[in-house]
User: Which sequence fits this backbone?
């Protein structure tokens, strides 16, 4: 089983190292790691955020464990050289159109959510975010308006087939969960969303047992803090999914807790090929200080074990160890505690050793 490890920038290497310690503690036979440079680090070393050899390492692996990319130092580079192009390029080149971002309340964390404890406790949702289309991948650029003013522009679009395939992913997820799906769009304003809604409604007809509703994104953002327990599967496009998933993470307690899986159509010998990463970024404000919460990365590893390596039992062991660590009061600064990255990883490794 080949895992490509792409730590990236900022806290990326810190949280990825923690996840690798957990992988090591599982002592799985036959796992080989291949490390590659991505993001600002890759730009420094190779002149590009996603060097061809890194893409090749990812392509030939069974799964990719990704940290984070991004650094203020590179924010004014031309677009193609900016670190964020690495993750966008991987998603596009590897055909990873389905991004799963689960958010559920953890016992013991209710009081740390900015929401009232009874609301935080009731959260158990999955954001299914389309990941290779939308305004992210449309034509874009800068032009001069008739009045001579500079104008930035980005084209938003979705094709029927793109909407259909992500809708199927989300409906299948809803079938295996509580059978509820909320499709989030802005169909009252955007043509892109109008088509989205039409196609999702068609696909819904193939899943009569799933209760489907459509919600405008502004209302969804409001409902997510007002009564997050109403959501099971949230199906949405690339841009809205980016925003709503960060919001969902804060409802649970911290962005340092939310993992993700990005999947496409390719299967490997062991499961689905996928890329796994925390939903957070490189957190330059805390990078290099050992303060990052590694649980999102560790939970991303659990998703990797489940979806790409067919290691459901090991995934469950990791998730239960994380739950026990959180319940025991070991918490990072993001959750008002004083445990650093290494101490949290130590606690997870120790819990893995306990029988559950
Ligand atoms: P961010 O997610 O990096 O950080 C937002 C806030 O959350 C910061 O205050 C940060 O300290 C905190 N935070 C994030 N992860 C944490 C963790 N594990 N433990 C504790 N606190 C944590 O978002 P940002 O500040 O808007 O972006 C920083 C850089 O990361 C930018 O360059 C951005 O483009 C990039 N980014 C990359 C990815 C990715 O690689 N997939 C995702 C998001 C942002
Ligand atoms: C994420 C990030 C990325 C996105 C950026 C870094 C391109 O915010 O993975 O959520 O917007 O998809
Ligand atoms: Mn994001």
Assistant:
């Amino acid at each position: 089983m080949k895992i490509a490890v792409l730590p990236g920038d900022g806290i990326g290497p810190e949280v990825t190292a923690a996840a690798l310690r957990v992988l090591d503690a599982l002592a799985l036979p036959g796992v080989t790691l291949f490390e590659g440079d991505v993001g600002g680090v890759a730009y420094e070393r190779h002149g590009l955020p996603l060097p061809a050899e890194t893409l090749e390492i990812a392509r030939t692996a069974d799964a990719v464990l990704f940290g984070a990319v991004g650094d203020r130092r590179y924010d004014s580079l031309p677009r193609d050289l900016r670190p964020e192009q690495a993750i966008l390029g991987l998603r596009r080149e590897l055909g990873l159109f389905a991004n799963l971002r689960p958010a559920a309340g953890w016992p013991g964390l209710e009081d740390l959510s900015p929401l009232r404890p009874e609301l935080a406790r009731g959260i158990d949702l999955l954001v299914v975010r389309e990941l290779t289309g939308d305004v992210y991948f449309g034509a874009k650029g800068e032009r001069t308006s008739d009045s001579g003013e500079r104008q930035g522009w980005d084209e938003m679009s979705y094709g029927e087939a793109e909407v259909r395939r992500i809708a199927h992913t989300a409906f299948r997820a809803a079938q295996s969960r509580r059978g509820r799906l909320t499709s989030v769009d802005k169909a009252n304003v955007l043509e892109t969303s109008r088509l989205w809604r039409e196609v999702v409604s068609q696909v819904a007809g193939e899943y009569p047992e799933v209760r489907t509703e459509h919600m405008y994104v502004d209302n969804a953002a409001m409902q997510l803090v007002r009564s997050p327990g109403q959501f099971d599967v949230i199906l949405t496009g690339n841009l809205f999914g980016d925003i709503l998933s960060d919001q969902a993470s804060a409802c649970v307690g911290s962005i340092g807790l939310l993992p993700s899986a990005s999947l496409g159509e390719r299967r490997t010998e062991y499961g689905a090929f996928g890329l796994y990463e925390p939903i957070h970024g490189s957190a330059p404000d805390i990078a290099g200080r050992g303060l990052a919460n590694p649980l999102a990365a560790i939970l991303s590893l659990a998703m990797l074990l489940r979806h790409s390596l067919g290691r459901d039992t090991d995934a469950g062991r990791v998730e239960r160890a994380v739950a026990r660590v959180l319940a025991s009061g070991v918490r990072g600064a993001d959750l008002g505690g004083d445990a650093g990255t290494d101490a949290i990883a130590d606690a997870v490794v120790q819990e893995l050793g306990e029988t559950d």
About this structure: The longest helix spans residues 160-175. The first strand starts at residue 2 and ends at 8. The pocket of 3-isopropylmalic acid (ligand 2) is lined by residues 70, 84, 87-88, 242, 279, 281 (CB under 6 Å). The chain is about 40% helix and 20% strand.
